[in-house]
Design goal:
Order of helices and strands: HEEEEEHEEEEEEEEHHEHHHH
Shape: globular
Mean pLDDT: 83
Number of strands: 14
Low-confidence stretches: 21-50, 460-467
Strand order of the largest sheet: 5-6-8-7
Radius of gyration: 22 Å
Largest sheet: 4 strands, mixed
Structural class: alpha+beta
Strand content: 5-15%
Length: 467
Amino acid sequence: MRSTALAPLRDTLLVALGLGSCTPRPAETPPVTDGRPPVAPTQPRPTPAVAHGYVAEEDGTVHRASAPRCSADNPRPACVDPGQHSSCTADSECSGGANPRCVQSSGQIGPFCQCDFSCATDSDCNTGELCVCGEALGGDHHSMCVTAQCQQDSDCASGVCGVSVHHNGCSETRVLACRTATDTCTRNADCPAPEVCAYDAPSATWGCKGMTCVIGRPLLVDGAARTARGIDRGDWQRALPVPTDLDPATTAALAAHWHEVAALEHASVASFARFTLELLALGAPPDLLAAAQQAGLDEVEHARLAYALASRFAGRPLGPGPLCTADLALDRPLAAFVTALVHEGCIGETLGAAEAELLAEHADPGLATLLRRIATDETGHAALAWQTLRWLHDRHGEAVRQAARAALAAAELDLVDDLDDRPEATSAAWGLLPRRTLLAHRRRTLDAVVRPILGAVLGADKSTDLS
């Protein structure tokens, strides 16, 4: 999919906002190639006894034997160029965590600064969180507070309180959670790349998790996407063609991929229901309310398609179990609502529309028709989000402007290419593209579509102009 194909999406959204269109920026798209077969799962190995702190095993897993003392050093550079999208310019402007720092970042949106926090001990963290040292999180992480389902290995029947880190393509979720006897993986090597072995909150077990946050509006609770646990049921099915020429490893990867997509689409129904209630609380006009209701119905059909695909590849009927909604916040402050609107709607739905078109270009003809229908729906959902943002900006001005720009800056930071070299199962004909291709396309969409529209809605500046 050449980047010029993003111009119709951008123009359609601008027209829906009554803001006209603009000239696309040239860029290249990497070719889609199939990866090698995934690594076969291995059996879990017993974990040796440990003394204290975080323990890293030879297979790459990390667990918490006891409360540690971490280094609170944050190596990220201090803010020197806030650009146009910063949430802070000095450490004194940051609150809500220990050891606050205003740090420098940059990306396709240009330079920006944002608040960052670190911890030395558990006392630096909020209730329900514990301090995890940077080396336990891996990569370039520094110490930070994470959600904790356990405090140490002895809390768990398995004797292992593991560190889970999962980037779903849009954001990273970090959790401390017990390993269980029903886990479907023990280490990243048990999963086909680019999936990782991570904790799944709905099932309270560890399993292989991939990058499927786009296509559909996620139901975010405390920054993490919530979904219903999958169960065997046949009432979410629809007739679809069945491929017969796929090897078992690719078939299994497709089943896992579409099952996770289906769960996210199903949760999108709840996301739009919450969105509708919040619009009512904000006094939204009737056209926004009607569009929000229709979007929820669209997501039911998207979920049916994804569950049908997952069922075909899994060889048994799959559907969603109960979805927990009792703790969904419906009285968020304006800034929090705008942040969620930009992240889930303006960015998430826009990326979803572009990605559905990308998948359709390489898909089996029957699937391509369905994916293009989804792309049309997601474009409408994105337009609803942008229209809502414009309505809020007209009513509340600078407060909305600042929250929206900070949300875009955070999204840019999340779309970082952190790929490894493990083999990756792909099948372009059936909607499973290489992760590198998807990440590159998302960054390109953020630059060529999201940034210009945000500039048009909030008022163009040097980093969001339409030229």
